[in-house]
């Protein structure tokens, strides 16, 4: 690539300041494809980074993707597929023959090849595996034998391991002398004769050390090993906590079987952190490329659960129909009490779910957290109660009504604060993902308690219009 | 460190299977501190990784932290502070003299030193800067001159840059011959005489190449450069998109001024992705170590905004007091319509906010996204309307009521779907963070539309008890 074609210069016409493909650029490519002008389409797409080509396919309407793929087929390599959204990729892969898929997979490290193959139907998977050469096939079959979302699926088999008696010079000569070794690695693992990792050596340390020094004296013995069956979320937290660039993956016998690098982890960290937003809202995976049928089903399930809880809350209102019939203003004000409790509960819930997910809230500090949230809820409840009490008195001039709504607001806020901590903490102890199911419980709690405390107090107090 | 002390063996008594400190371990340390048994406390804490020592302080009640810090003061190095939560660190740092802080900072790379110093009061900051030696001081002062949360604050000045005419052998000799160079780097930057980066070379490529080859032939010319004033969220997205391990930071003249490594980015990726959960819920930063006063203020602000919108929604109910007085059952059912709209709106909102944050939703596919969410909302609204309509008919035997509630449910769901896309997309175009303010607008919309459509249709239809 000559200097004139440096991507810094190019990207200005393709990408906006946030590294997103410009709509004009996407349209230009799709117009060329539609006009049958394959040459222009290719020329436009060719300078793009594989991640941007993947984005281009995601931004292309589904019905135009096959045409685009046809026009730029020679640019569609394994790296592009590895970067692509699962659903978009599946669509494109479906149109390829098993041999073509096998060709793509064989260009990639095991982890990326597995990502492409793991979502296929079993029949297609078998056909692709048959088309691979025996080495790649064995590596991918082994990866597929580990549970989904485990370290075994994430890891690549391509890594550099050297015996501890080697010197730095031996290791460098080995790397220079063996064409077939991987070129993408950031650390070298030092292993004992049983192939168990005993140390890790950053490449920078090797480069700064004279050839004659033993690897055992350069490597670091404290290392963070990843068990092959560890869940990817735990792997991500471990990379984050210990600031790892790469890590050795070991089998149950402690033998080195693979390597995970941080570039495969950043996607998971982002996904897992973003998942909580989506799960708390009951939006499933929230993948915008998911077939609409699946999205409707996921969201519907959650909405039906919520319909059930809304009916429970509304049955509480039903208990007080008599009071409401004589004093309709209560119906006007009751959504304020339940809604504000819901807002306060959601605040606490979001904080607690994040604190659990990031390992900041553990059994060591749960009691402290409950007390903290109770104090916050009491303070906010008292302030909100006072505000709404004063407002109600000013607007409606009814002293009794303003006392009742203020008291109900305080009660419901404290309920929200308590529920917002205890529900997710309890679910987490029961090994249920607190992000998925907490919101139902907490909003049911704040709705019912909001209606019950307000309408109940009003009835007890004998309020009437 | 002898083999017997390998952390794999040790950590079992300290960490649970999720790498969290065990409550028994935390108690043991704190009991020793309280009993004045400094030796035991030190012996327990000493084998911990800096990240775990930082966690230990976070899990220790605030009033006991000073005692713990005193007991293990010699283990409290810069790395521990760099890993610590901002608020917990500030507390501890406040108890140190400027010279002690300067000693800690001088052990660290610029980015970590800046993280410790940037949160201090201006007076204290000046005192610490005075206590640093001139080189460190200049580097930190320069970093502080960049905006908060920009690449300039994140980058470290310690990096390896070599001229393009050097061979691989020249570079290795340079690294071996200069003690003072940094040891933590993953790539070498090749620069022109004006110190502008013209290529990046992974260390693995250098190690696999004979000494005589020119660096210019090993390096990759396409490189992702980070402008020094880029926001950290954009930096994180760029690292993620292009799977970077490290990247050169350049000033406005294109000259190499620093380096950002991915281990500093993983925290940001996780924070930024998690922030959306907290912001959508109106929980501010959601930092559980924040002083309670600040937390109450942040959440209160949001709750008062919500109180305002709840009053708007309730004023809609107020318009229909007459209808409710004659038919109190409407008050029982109306929270179902508004609540279900709120749930559906929240689902769409969460999906859209995540899609915007991850650059999946851009102006290229906004129209498609609106149509997609409209279809989902219509499908879900029709199904939920049918369900609630049938349920209402079965329970209350009122055909007109069941038609009205079914129609209102459909109307409110479609409103929720439209609002859930259009509100965040519009805010984003106005450069307002959609995660912060969308929820207020969307729930106000679904509450008011829920009440208005249900009570309005009931009134038009002339429903009565």
TrEMBL record, chains A, B:
Tagged with keyword Electron transport: no
Protein name: Magnesium transporter MgtE
Family that this chain belongs to: Belongs to the SLC41A transporter family.
An MF annotation (GO) of this entry: metal ion binding
Keyword Transmembrane helix annotated: yes
Top-level lineage group: Bacteria
Assigned keywords, A-Z: CBS domain, Cell membrane, Magnesium, Membrane, Metal-binding, Transmembrane, Transmembrane helix, Transport
TM region(s), chain numbering: 302-321, 327-353, 374-397, 403-427, 439-463
Domain CBS: from-to ranges: 219-277
Comp. bias intervals (Acidic residues): 1-18
Complexes and interactors: Homodimer.
Membrane topology field: Multi-pass membrane protein
Matches recorded under Pfam families: CBS, MgtE, MgtE_N
InterPro entries registered for this protein in UniProt: CBS_dom, CBS_dom_sf, Mg_transptr_MgtE_intracell_dom, MgtE_N_sf, MgtE_transporter, SLC41_membr_dom, SLC41_membr_dom_sf
Gene3D superfamilies assigned to the protein according to its UniProt record, in alphabetical order: CBS-domain, MgtE N-terminal domain-like, SLC41 divalent cation transporters, integral membrane domain
Organism: Sphingomonas ginsenosidivorax
First-listed, main subcellular location of the protein, grouped into a coarse class: membrane
Cited function: Acts as a magnesium transporter.
GO cellular component: plasma membrane
Location within or outside the cell: Cell membrane; Membrane
Region: Disordered, residue numbers: 1-20
